[in-house]
C-alpha cells in the first residue's frame, strides 16, 4: 500500500482514522502541550490523541483553535477515565472534554481502562453518545481478551478500536489477534517503548535503521504502520515530532518485518505501563 501521513484506516463503522497520530500522554498542560500539538499539526499530523486523565485537553483544544486548521480535518481522540466510571459521571465527563477541546464532537471516544463492574454501564453511555452523533466512533483502551469478550456479550455496538501498549518489545500478538477476529482495530500506545524505555537501543532496530539512513524510532513506527497498527508517538521536541512523521520514503522487507516481529519472543513482558492482565478494578 502506498502510504503518506494522510493515509487512513477504515474502522468497522466506516469512519477513517489516520494511521499516524500524535500522542500527548505526560505532556504538561499549558505551553508544552500547545507548542507540541502545533508543531505536530505543522508537520502534517491530522490525528491527536489525548485523555481526560492527561489533564491537557484544554491545551490541545487551544492549539487546534490557534492552528487555523479546519476542525473537520483533524481527528481527535479522547478517553473516559476510570474515576468517572467509578462515580458514574460518564456523561458529564464527556461533556467537559467537549468544552475543553472546544468542539461539539469527538472523532473517537474510548473507555480508558477496564473496570469489571462498570464496563457495561459505561459502554451503554458511549453507545448513547455515538447514537447522538457527538462521537463519530467509540472504542476501548487496555482491554485484554477477557474484557473484550465480556463487553461483546452485551454490546449493541462493537468497539471500533482497542488502544493498548504495543511496540516491538511488547507485540501483544494474542490481544491483537483477538481484536482482528472481532473487527476491532488495534492502536498502539507507547509505540516507541515509552519514556525511559530501552526499545530504541535495540541492535536489530538500529541495524535496520542504518541501512535506510533512518532512526530506530522511524523503523519502529514504520513496522507498526506496515503491520496495520494505528500509532500515536509522543514527543515534545520539534525535530523528533517531524522525524517521527517522516516514514513514507522507505519500506521494510518481509525479512525485516519478521526480525522485528520476533523481538518480543522473550517470555518476560517488557511493557512499561501498568499491565491490564494483572491490574483489575
Ligand atoms: P521526548 O518527548 O523528550 O522527545 P512513546 O511515544 O512510546 O510514549 O515514547 C515517547 C518517548 O520517546 C518520549 O520520552 C520521547 O521523548 C521519546 N521520543 C519520541 N520520539 C523520539 C525519537 N524520534 N527518538 C528518540 N526518542 C524519541
Give the end-to-end Cα distance, rounded to a whole number of Å: 41 Å
CATH classification class: Alpha Beta
Gyration radius, rounded: 18 Å
Going by CATH, the homologous superfamily would be NADP-dependent oxidoreductase domain
Count of DSSP strands: 10
Instruction: Write out the distinct hetero groups bound to the structure.
Output: adenosine-2'-5'-diphosphate
Q: How would a textbook summarize the main sheet?
A: 8 strands, parallel
Give, in spatial order, the strands making up the sheet with the most strands: 3-4-5-6-7-8-9-10
CATH topology: TIM Barrel
How would you sum up the global shape? globular
Q: What's the pLDDT, averaged over the residues?
A: 94
Structural class: alpha/beta
Count of structural domains: 1
Please characterize this protein's 3D structure:
The protein has 281 residues and is α/β, with parallel strands linked by helices. The chain has a single domain, classed as NADP-dependent oxidoreductase domain (TIM Barrel), CATH 3.20.20.100. Helix content is 37%, strand content 15%. The protein has helices at 31-42, 57-67, 82-87, 90-100, 119-131, 145-152, 173-181, 203-212, 216-226, 238-243, 254-261, and strands spanning 8-10, 16-18, 22-23, 47-49, 75-80, 106-111, 135-141, 161-165, 185-189, 230-231. α6 links the parallel β7 and β8. The model has no long low-confidence stretch (mean pLDDT 94).
Amino acid at each position: 500500500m502506498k502510504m503518506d501521513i494522510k493515509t487512513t484506516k477504515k474502522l468497522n463503522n466506516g469512519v477513517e482514522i489516520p494511521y499516524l497520530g500524535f500522542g500527548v500522554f505526560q505532556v504538561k498542560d499549558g505551553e508544552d502541550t500547545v507548542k507540541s500539538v502545533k508543531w505536530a499539526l505543522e508537520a502534517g499530523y491530522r490525528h491527536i490523541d489525548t485523555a481526560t486523565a492527561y489533564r491537557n485537553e484544554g491545551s490541545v483544544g487551544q492549539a487546534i483553535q490557534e492552528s487555523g486548521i479546519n476542525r473537520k480535518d483533524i481527528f481527535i481522540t479522547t478517553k473516559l477515565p476510570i474515576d468517572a466510571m467509578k462515580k458514574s459521571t460518564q456523561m458529564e465527563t464527556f461533556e467537559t472534554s467537549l468544552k475543553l477541546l472546544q468542539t461539539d464532537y469527538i472523532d473517537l471516544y474510548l473507555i480508558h481502562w477496564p473496570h469489571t463492574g462498570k464496563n457495561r454501564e459505561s459502554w451503554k453511555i458511549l453507545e448513547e453518545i455515538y447514537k447522538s452523533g457527538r462521537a463519530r466512533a467509540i472504542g476501548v483502551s487496555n482491554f485484554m481478551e477477557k474484557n473484550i469478550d465480556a463487553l461483546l456479550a452485551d454490546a449493541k455496538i462493537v468497539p471500533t478500536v482497542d488502544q493498548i501498549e504495543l511496540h516491538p518489545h511488547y507485540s501483544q500478538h494474542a490481544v491483537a489477534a483477538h481484536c482482528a477476529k472481532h473487527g476491532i482495530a488495534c492502536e498502539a500506545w507507547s509505540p516507541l517503548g515509552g519514556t525511559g524505555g530501552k526499545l530504541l537501543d535495540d541492535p536489530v532496530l538500529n541495524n535496520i535503521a542504518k541501512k535506510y539512513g533512518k532512526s530506530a524510532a522511524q523503523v519502529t513506527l514504520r513496522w507498526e504502520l506496515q503491520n496495520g497498527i494505528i500509532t500515536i508517538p509522543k514527543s515534545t521536541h520539534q525535530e523528533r515530532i517531524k522525524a517521527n512523521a517522516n516514514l513514507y520514503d522507505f519500506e521494510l522487507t518481509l525479512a525485516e518485518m519478521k526480525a522485528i516481529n520476533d523481538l518480543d519472543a522473550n517470555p518476560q513482558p517488557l511493557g512499561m505501563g501498568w499491565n491490564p492482565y494483572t491490574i483489575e478494578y
